[in-house]
Design brief:
With 76 residues, the protein is mainly α. The chain has 3 helices and no strands.
């Protein structure tokens, strides 16, 4: 259930944020999560952080592709 919510947030963020730099958000969140896990003394061996970063980035790319063509200056 958590992965569905994470991917839904990534899709909405991809649709709202217009900059391509927004694709670095999943990497930044993954790096922060990895830092928190390692700072508590746990290992990153069994964490899904790389998977979530890769899938969230792809979903954000899809969200940017779903935006309306208004940002291109095309009028309906």
């Amino acid at each position: 259930m958590t992965i569905i919510l994470i991917l839904a947030v990534a899709l909405v963020a991809g649709m709202i944020v217009k900059s391509r730099w927004a694709l670095l958000l999943p990497v930044a969140v993954g790096a922060c999560a990895a830092f928190v896990v390692t700072s508590t003394g746990h290992s990153l061996n069994d964490t899904p952080i790389p998977f979530l970063v890769a899938v969230s980035t792809l979903v954000m790319i899809g969200g940017q592709g779903l935006r309306s063509p208004r940002h291109l200056g095309v009028r309906p």
